[in-house]
Amino acid sequence: MAKGYTGDMVIQLLRERGVTSAIINLGGNVQTIGTKPDGTRWRIGVKAPNAEDNFAILEVVDSAVVTSGGYERYFTDETGKVYWHILDPSTGKPADRGLSSVTIVGPEGRMCDSLSTALFVMGVEEAAAYWRKKGGFEMILYTQDNTILITEGLVDSFTLRDAFAQLPVTVIRP
């Protein structure tokens, strides 16, 4: 949550100084103020797990966009098994519930930061159930079998990149 909190503090400081258009990137944590100076929405790339490119573009205004996944901070043991840094507190082992990454879009960085990690640990079904029950944010779930699930509030702001157009996308509804 440290990057999410830091992002919130930077955004607050900028707003207090009268900034009406800004984007900050804290590495996996992006936050925006308003729109771009030309009035269009900010375009945020969402990195594809285990690839160099972004699989999608999100267009946002006044939002935090935070992604957690097991594909950047990990090690591989001598047998080829991958261990990532997001741990399941019930087992003490790397969380492995079928997700490669979770992206949360919402009004505050600290909320998005904590949710992206927690929902990664929960897995697809529990994450979708949590969104349906609590709301207040949108999400993108990228599964280990290369399926993408997005909440319905992102439908008009989510664009799959051409190189990833073959991936199935499912909309999660309430």
UniProtKB/TrEMBL annotation:
Source organism, top-level taxon: Bacteria
EC number of the protein: 2.7.1.180
The protein's required cofactors: Mg(2+)
Keyword Lipid biosynthesis: no
EC category: transferase
GO molecular function: metal ion binding; transferase activity
Reactions the enzyme catalyzes: L-threonyl-[protein] + FAD = FMN-L-threonyl-[protein] + AMP + H(+)
InterPro entries with a match to the protein in the record: ApbE, ApbE-like_sf
Protein name: FAD:protein FMN transferase
